[in-house]
Amino acid sequence: MPAKGEAPLATEKHLTSGPGRLWVKFPYHYVDKGGISHPNFIPDHGIKHWQSRKIGHFFGGVAFVLCALLFSSFIWPVILAGAFTLMLGGARLIKPDAFRGVGGTGRATQALSEVWFPLVSIPILGVGWGIFDRPLESVACLLMMAFGDCLTGWVRALKYQSPTKGPIGSLAMFVTCAVIAWAFLSPLWLGISVALVATIAEFICGDVSPVKWLRWADDNWSIPAASFITMFGGLYLIGVLNYAS
User: Fold this and answer.
1) What predicted TM-score, i.e. pTM, was given to this entire model?
2) Number of C-alpha atoms within 13 angstroms, CB side, residue 94?
3) What are phi and psi of 80, to 5 degrees?
């Protein structure tokens, strides 16, 4: 209870009640009930860390899709991505277990996985959306990681019961990325090429990669980066990549 004369503390009811507050209510519930509060709750209740991280990927993907639908400019998505990078990076330095459900502190290698994904989204959105005015293509490159790696992680959980790279998981990755390509990318043949590159990047990169000399390349940045280079390189080669007006 606040002392006499002090303003009452903000609560969910205060934040989400009253006319015109729907714009507050949605992100409050999205962040508090899913995107942020899930990381520690889930692994603390029996779900393995390498599985709970995949749920974080999914919510990140949803956030990027909403950015493409709700914003007409790349500026706010880049600002929000930068804010999340600073928040997660700062938490990693000051309180490493704050986001242990999605963070590298729950992994033997202490990988910076939760920082790399929002960090790599900044140049992808800044260049792809800001310079070339290709918001859907930029977001799709991020979804290859967010949705593709999410599904392949859970398929491997069911198949191998461990974070093991394998053909079944890679097949799930490719199918998911191909669906993303079909939904967001044109021409389709280039989108399928992006899906294939993303699948290869997921398989050969990361701390459990069978390619030992690529284990330093965290798949949280290598998948979006490889997808972006393939997509925008392809658009350039076929002569349809133009600067934003």
Assistant:
1) 0.78
2) 6
3) -65, -40
